[in-house]
Amino acid sequence: MTEIGVRSAVRGEYDEIQGLFGGAMMFEASDDDLGRAMFEPDRALVATDGDDLVGTARALTRDLSVPGAVVPAAHVTGVGVRATHRRRGILSELMQRQLREVPEAIAVLWASEPAIYGRFGYGAAAWATSYEIDLHRVGPPAVRIRPGEIVELAPDDAAKELATLLRSLQERRPGVSGRSELGWQKRLQDKPDGRGGKTARRILVHRDETGAVDGYALWRGKMNWGPTGPANEVTLEELVAVEPIAYRALWQHVLTLDLAATLQFSYAAMDEPLQQLVTTPTALNRRVSESLWLRVTDVARALGQRQYAVPVDLVFEVADDLIAANAGRFRLTANGPQVRCERTEDPADLSLSVTELGAVYLGGRSLAEFAATGRITEHTPGALTTAGAAFSWPIQPASIEVF
Ligand SMILES: CC(C)(COP(=O)(O)OP(=O)(O)OC[C@H]1O[C@@H](n2cnc3c(N)ncnc32)[C@H](O)[C@@H]1OP(=O)(O)O)[C@@H](O)C(=O)NCCC(=O)NCCS
């Protein structure tokens, strides 16, 4: 058996790397110009066995909304190890090297299985609620929509207006990833062989009385004619609205489509406002799962670049088995937009590992939840209450796409 090596990828290797990832995930990688154009070889690692690629992990350069700011975040993706080479430590090698090399203060990913990434210091920082909506029972919001308020756009005309709305969403909700121009092209790409039997994607926008676009929805349909009549299926891919009226109108539109019986939506937030707009929330058929996992790669920089809900001045003792520079005590001082985090020799008020820090970073998890199982320890009475309030955020984090 040859020795396994780990190295950076080179530009021409995209197809082979994507093929390897597809093999691990069990999908057939298709020709993908945009994927190739967006490939960042210096941010892709490969594990080799002789001349063969046997493992890979990539990172994309994107930004992410966090409480009170939009910051750079390594978006980790394309992680896979050839089935013949599993459980020999290849993922561990790839993850350790990737974490050492990440220039951003945080890294994020969606995990195929929740058991994989905790050991590398990632914490589940956001949840996704998926809806399987029974359209006959749900009772959509009642909104009077005037002609011209909701219109369909062609993909080529849509990206610019949609990008503005996504940026507005980032200003309010943590956990939302930004998209480059190429990223938008990829998001709106709609190859017939990628539709899974559904219609082409429909791009809807809502316009306010001045004609400005203040919300959009991406959806597809699938005809399904049952023994008792029409039971079409709607898949909502994304719904972003910056004004309440746009939010209500777009939801009403997709919940009342003729011939449809069900609507599937996988990216609702825990505090999705739709829940209080429908008459029968149980008809949403909600299911919750982890969405964004977050790894703090530079404690002082990461804590210094988000904002806090209440003033705080506390010392955190952080444990990190993989990144030595993260281990130790840090004083976090925040009052409104003034935030500082630096190393200190002062005694700790709270201690925790980098995994819990990642989990609470976006404001969607409670510190008390971790303290109750001994994963966060309070040394100074009251520190847990103050830190819990400071790290919380009025809007729950939500990631609106798997990357
Ligand atoms: C998940 C995957 C990347 C793991 O690669 P690997 O090289 O076998 O992982 P390692 O050998 O480095 O495993 C490290 C540890 O994680 C554990 N582990 C790895 N994959 C796991 C999984 N899917 N579930 C639970 N534990 C897992 C291993 O048992 C090992 O634990 P140990 O240190 O206590 O022995 C690989 O199995 C794979 O490609 N799976 C299919 C594609 C996929 O799910 N990719 C992730 C996309 S987010």
TrEMBL record:
Alphabetical GO biological process terms: aminoglycoside antibiotic catabolic process
Positions of region (Disordered): 176-198
CDD domains xrefs: NAT_SF
Active site positions: 117 (proton donor), 403 (proton acceptor)
Transmembrane residue ranges: none
InterPro entries (alphabetical): Acetyltransf_17, Acetyltransferase_Eis, Acyl_CoA_acyltransferase, Eis_dom, GNAT_dom, NAcTrfase_Eis, SCP2_sterol-bd_dom_sf
Protein name: Putative acetyltransferase
Source organism (scientific name): Kribbella antiqua
